[in-house]
Design a protein that fits this description.
This protein is an alpha/beta fold. It has four helices and three strands; from the N terminus they run βααβααβ. The chain has a single domain, classed as Barnase, Chain D, CATH 3.30.370.10. 44% of the residues lie in helices and 14% in strands. It has a three-stranded parallel sheet, covered by helices on one side. α3 crosses α4. It starts with a strand and ends with a strand. 23% of the residues are buried.
């Protein structure tokens, strides 16, 4: 899945872009804790947290296009994306499941 980071200029647009791309539920809290919660269920379609799913044991690859510009424009959000993606995977591993998320940066 590709995310066009040129559409991200602040926290509000960050959450709008990811919510639209991944099909977060209407009750999505639009903060990084809620982002983590939604993505922690990528392999559980019954949870209703995303409209994009992977089979248990598979990984969703998020390719962040225009990553260098995003990092320069929104450095705190860039770091939050990395840290929160890692936390999603940590949460999965802690519950005995495989990681569900990979992030790649395309300049």
């Amino acid at each position: 899945m590709r995310i066009d980071a040129n559409e991200i200029v602040d926290a509000e647009s960050f959450h709008s872009v990811f919510a639209a791309a991944l099909g977060f539920p209407a009750f999505y809290g639009r903060n990084m804790d809620a982002w983590i919660d939604c993505l922690s269920y990528l392999d559980d379609p019954n949870a209703g947290m995303t409209s994009i799913h992977v089979q248990p044991g598979q990984i969703l690859s998020l390719v962040i296009d225009h990553a260098a510009d995003f990092k320069a424009r929104c450095p705190e959000l860039f770091v939050a994306l990395i840290e929160c993606a890692a936390f999603v995977n940590w949460r999965c591993v802690e519950t005995g499941n495989a990681p569900v998320l990979a992030v790649a940066f395309n300049a």
